[in-house]
Every structure is written in C-alpha cells, then in structure tokens.
Amino acid sequence: MSSYFFQPYVSVGQRRAAAAKRITKMTRQGASLSPVQLTGRAIASTFWGKAWCKQIESFSDYENRLPRGRSYVRNNAVIDLQVAPGKVTALVMGSSLYEQTISITPISPGRWQSIKGACSGQIDSLVELLQGRLSNGVMAVITHRQEGMFPLPAEIKMDCSCPDWAGLCKHLAAVLYGIGARLDSKPELLFTLRGADHTELITGAVSVPASPSAAAVGLDDASLAEVFGIEIDSGSDEHKPPVISKPKRKLKESAIPANATKSGSGKHQRQRPKSEARTRAKRKKTKTTRRTKPPGKSKTQAVGKKRTPAVKRR
Predict the structure, then answer these.
(1) How many whole angstroms separate alpha carbon 56 and alpha carbon 49?
(2) CB 15 within 8 Å of CB 93
(3) Closest Cα partner for 181 from 296, 39, 287?
(4) N or C end of the chain: smaller count of CB under 10 Å?
(5) Domain assignment of residue 277, yes or no
(6) Which residues, other chains included, contact 179 with Cβ-Cβ below 8 Å and sequence gap of 6+?
(7) Is 9 exposed, middle or buried (0-12, 13-18, 19+ CB in 10 A)?
C-alpha cells in the first residue's frame, strides 16, 4: 500500500521533543501560541471540563478514535488551541505538524431561552456559574445531552490536514479533549463557542431599578445643595475643611471705667488723678536718696594717717 495512508511510526518521546522544538521556533518567529499542557493523566478536573469530555464520549460515532486522541493530548501534542465564536483552530504534532478546524453551530434562540427559563433565579453570581457551584437542577439543565449547552454531533463540523480519510481522526480527537482541558481554566469559552451571553443566566443581571441610596452616590454638587440646603464650593479647595472663625468677645461698656485709657498694647488702664501721681513721684524720689550714700574716706586712707595727740596750751 502507498505510504500516503501509512505514515512512519513516531514514538511518544519523539513527538514530545518535536512539539517542544516547533513551539520554540514559532514563538521566536512571533507566533502567539496557546498550547494545551497537562501536568498529569487527568484531562479535566472541573465541572465544565468534565461535562464537555463526558458529552463527546457519549456519542458512539466518536468512541473508536477517542482513545488515540486522549493519548495525544496527554503527551502535549496540541501545541496551539484558539477558541472563537463558533470556531476552534488548532495545531497538533503527529508524524508531522497538522492543522485542525472545528466549526460549531451557535445555540438556537429557543434552546437558549428554555435554558435561561429553567435557571432563572437559581444562579446568584458569576463566580458560582464559572466555578460550577450549581444546584443539581441547574446542572441537569446545562448538561442535558439533547437540550443542554453542549453541542450535538450534527452541530459539529471538523477538518484536519492529515491524510486520514476518517471524519474524526486522532488529531481532531485530541483537539476535542483539548477543549475540555481549556474549559478548566476558562469556562466562559463554552458560551463564546455557542454564541451565548453567560451573564444572562445570573440573577443579578436582571434589570432592577436603582435604589435611592445608589442614586444619591451619583448626585452632582447642585443636586446635593438642593437636597440638603447647603452651599457647596466647587473650586479647587473643595476637599479642605471649612475654616470657622471664632466670634470676637466684646467687653461690656459697664465693665470699663469711664476714666480708662488704652495703652500701647490695647488694654484699658485706669486713669489716676494728678494728686495721686504727685504722691507716687515723691515716694520714688525719697527711696532713691536713701539708697545713695555720701562719699566717704576709704579704709586704706584711714589706716595710712596716724592720729597726733592734742597739745594742751598752758
């Protein structure tokens, strides 16, 4: 038989080395790759990844080729996987590098409406939805084989550049499992792939009229001034605390004597009569005269001179 249908056998180690080498080469050339790299034998570990893998394994059309696809994805043969609305493109390293394209029909509006109706009021937050923390009823609706979020075989069209004539080759099977592994870290890609807005399943996404407290947050200065009856300065110093000037204390006229005068410091002083001023001036003068002593002889001068006895006259 022609070698076109039977490519030479490539071991797992050779495929791994070839995949790593090709990733390095394409990255240096400026390509933006998103490889599927597993750390263990488990392909998916979260609710969304496991649900995807369970969905594709439930169809008998795929069961013959899926085991080879699991082997390829576990050996990191999927060196690139890009998910866009309704389309998945990938690169898988086999005996050579092959390109894959998977087209998925967007979910029908009637089917999406029935899913939203069944999940209405049962999903409280986006975190619960993406982490798969859902009730059993919601899980049953989303993962329903015929009416759930996951596509049916008739809604999937696949193409690979490898020479295998089968509708699902091992490279395409590896890509299908790679999608399940990618949903572990980015579960929102399932809704992107099906052309649906995942926020419509959340209770908080329903339009609710804004509360008065929430509306008050967005009031401008004019509205706040009108509501609270205050004046708001919109200048550059609007964040500075207002300076409150203390009222000046006024002295009562009755407390100030009529004959008081202002000194240089501004304080009021009582004006004394002239007779009292004269008396105070005399007292000061007498004090100064008492303190001053008349000039006398020093001790040295007194010691130097001897007293002469007085001579009596006969």
Answers:
(1) 11
(2) yes
(3) 39
(4) C
(5) no
(6) 52, 81, 83, 88, 189, 193
(7) exposed
Amino acid at 192: T
For residue 239, give both structure tokens: 């964040």
Strand order in the sheet with 78-84: 78-84, 87-93, 97-104, 156-160
Q: For residue 154, give both structure tokens.
A: 């008739």
DSSP string, 14-34: HHHHHHHHHHHHHHHTT----
Residue 35: domain span: 12-106+152-195
What's the pLDDT score for residue 179?
A: 95
Measured CA to CA, the distance from residue 156 to residue 62 in angstroms comes to 12
90, 81 contact by CB (below 8 A): yes
CA 5 distance to own-chain centroid:
55
Q: What is the C-alpha to C-alpha distance for residues 131 and 185, in angstroms, rounded to an integer?
A: 10
Tokens 């009823």 correspond to what residue? 137
Q: Is 282 helix (H, G, I), strand (E, B) or coil?
A: helix
Flag whether 175 is in a domain: yes
Q: Return mean pLDDT, the chain.
A: 74
pLDDT digits 0-9 by tens, 84-110: 999 999 999 888 899 999 999 999 999
Contact between 76 and 22 under an 8 Å Cβ cutoff? The reply is no
Kindly state whether residue 147 falls inside one of the protein's structural domains. Answer: no
- For the chain, what is the domain count? 1
Domain annotation covers residue 23: yes
Q: Do 79 and 37 contact (CB within 8 A), yes or no?
A: no
Check: pTM over 0.90? Answer yes or no. Answer: no
